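note to self: dont lose this again. the chain is below, predicted strucutre after it. 377 aa total, dont forget to put it in the shared folder this time
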Amino acid sequence: MNSEHIVRRLALAAFAASWILTFALGTGQPAEAKGFTAAAPGYRFAFPRDHGPHPAYQTEWWYYTGHLTAESGRTYGYQLTFFRRGVDADAVRRNPSKWALNNVFLAHFAVTDEADGRFHFAEKSNRAGVGNAGADTTRFKVWNGPWTAEDKDGRIVLSAVAADRSILLHLRPSRAPVIHGRDGVSLKGREKGQASHYYSLTRLETSGTLTIGGRLDTVKGLSWMDHEFGSNQLSEAQIGWDWFGLHLENGMDLMIYRIRRADGTIEPVSSGTLLLPDDSVVHLPLEAIEYSVRDAWTSPVSKAVYPSRWKIAIPDHRIELSISPTVTNQELVTTQSTKVTYWEGSVTVKGVVGGEPVAGAGYVELTGYAKSMGKVF
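---
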């Protein structure tokens, strides 16, 4: 091994150590002490500005999930997520070098092949600088290596490739952005700064191509995008969350998140958002949501035990839903990026709304079952 290879490997090792410590373990200091801004009430969203990055906040992510149907009739779920984690808000001021470690960028790409019952995922990690990864401040574009999400003439184009899997998708919003929470913040706890600024594009008409195992399919479907940013969301007493993003065929969209505490209770500020067919938005406090788990699944890899089927009801709106995974094993063990093991998967929905039968589809995210997420986010 020559000296150039040794230097390169040492540099990569130093980088890996820095983002593991920064992203997965934290520094022991409050985000505000490192120069980051806490999410606070009164934030007013403005678009397209808020589609882009918010470097004043320590943690930010752009989450794309969706369901695709090929011309052959095969069905798929997909996830493409971009994370930005601020290391030190003042790093660039102190060191203007392009290699200054001010942000770490991570990404996850997954495809659920529902016909074969198989789940595939890949991950990336890069520091900002010299174009390896980043988020554009002049127009909407986030990227990590060749994986990208960017605006092109009013449509969002997603591109990712890993091994024998790839997507090239065009997403067209059919609804305006939906702001979650109240007064510009989605609360995650009662401590100062335990909140995020959070909105979704809940209905993105989707078309493009998906390749898996050498088979290229032309696909159409429906996607959901979450964009969230903040600096101090979870406390040590909070171990993780259960998140649901559901499309119903009657035109309703439903987001629910439940933050689980170490003592087995649910954080009282957990909540949801119901988007009605006429585009009106209803904030759902925790007490408005009835929730029960009907099954469980144990991962053969992490040994974590995840809930696997659910019943959710919103009595005030006469909504009763049964939710089931399309594939049981949709666990991501991200040893090369966020160091977080979580379940994120495609689900189907059946139920009744206002006495009428309804079907739908969505995505569910389950964190903190393999290891507590407290103080990670």
